[in-house]
């Protein structure tokens, strides 16, 4: 059998995270894998026929890996107007953006925008939308996905009238004078955008499967350009698996995708006999996702002590009995479960369930995850360490929310939130995660936030005791994330036997001022030795 000739890759610096020092000057890549590292001359002597790919004064780091992000949920966004605060800074710009689309669209075709953030951009309701779109129905989706705003044409289209009663589990929001303000909250929105649950005859047409494939491919390209080589999509339905499989068949999968299947669909996976590890190193089932409490940004997570302002301790969204039954079932089948738990009270309930099944049904090597795992203390750390449980906390929230976090949770409590430092010190595996669309998807933003714990807009530092070093932050977003999907033996380092997934940067994040890391130029991204982005 003919031995394949490797490619030799060099750059100004290579951060390999290999267990042996010093850092290599070059990598030899054969197919998808790194086969040797060393100096350029050593590798040239060893592989005389090899081509040299020289990245000049650029810097190479292991490919960045987001352990909890939402691709399937946001694939449709790539087809709609981008109304994020980054894209439209204020209300007039937002309205101009919608108005331009309205004039380019025939009446009665819905104009949709996504990622609107009322807190950052300002208030937009029915009256503002009516001024720019008197005839064309418009839907503006909020960034967190729990509500949206429609104009009068939209309300007419949907048959929602001033006298319409609120639907179960939702609300038609109103101005102070009692008039509908166009805001459709929770079920009031879900019932009209999702054909499967639409109750009336009229609903906002959803994206087709083909649309969503295109949207996913566009999103993947954007994430490659930000330096991502791997992700774990933290909530997947069977339809989503079909969409991502089709994207892969169309050769647009320049990203390694792990998937957490919603517990609601677990029966189907069991019927098919597939579980954690099913798939390959491009598209793989990592485990199952369940929910236990509310959100950080929405201030609904389940706390043992009340929030600073209202005398309110958050919500438990799943009963303890159901949580325990789900954990037991998934664990007994030998599958990994990732339970969404933000507040310390929720985390304790998850740990109770994990400890219970670990005692009764031994599954050596099976490591479960706590998604977000936001507020901890020493007891939580010790129990996680004993179980081998993995924490997947928000990396970017200090940078994104800044001082708002102090006012929501109190300065003292912030020292125990998004506690990357504490996890590292306690020997608990901790992964890097954006939870996009809830925070920015750019992993370099996440690295900066982990190191500085400082809001980029307000300059306020939150929970300073949880700062980590640049090397630790990089390791969280590579090796930590690989461990959270059980792939640490071949992903996250640039060393022989590891995947040739790497990100090429204008600066070395380990040696520049951390305040500048989010702005480092991503020059190229490689997955399995193939260029998937070049800037
Ligand atoms: Zn999430």
Rg computed from alpha carbons, rounded to a whole number of angstroms:
24 Å
As laid out across the biggest beta sheet, the strand order is 7-14-15-16-17-18-19
Strand content: 15-25%
The total count of strands amounts to: 22
The CATH topology of the domain at 75-207 is given as Diaminopimelate Epimerase, Chain A, domain 1
Task: Bin the helical content.
Answer: 25-40%
Write down the overall mean pLDDT: 93
- Please describe the biggest sheet, giving its number of strands, its sense, and whether it closes into a barrel: 7 strands, parallel
CATH architecture of the domain at 75-207: Roll
Question: What is the CATH C level class of the domain at 75-207, in words?
Answer: Alpha Beta
**Tally of alpha and pi helices:** 18
Calculate the terminal CA-CA distance, rounded to whole Å: 37 Å
Give structural notes.
This protein has a domain at 75-207: Roll (Diaminopimelate Epimerase, Chain A, domain 1), CATH 3.10.310. Helix 10 packs across helix 11 (344-360) and helix 11 packs parallel to helix 12. It contains 18 helices and 22 strands. Helix content is 31%, strand content 21%. The radius of gyration is 24 Å and the shape is globular. Helix 10 (320-332) links the parallel strand 16 and strand 17. The longest helix has 17 residues, at 209-225. The protein has a seven-stranded parallel β-sheet, sandwiched between helices. Strands 8-9-10-11-13-12 form a six-stranded mixed β-sheet. Strands 2-6-20-21-22 form a five-stranded mixed β-sheet, with helices on one face. The chain has 535 residues and is an alpha/beta fold. Zinc ion is lined by residues 68, 70, 234, 435.
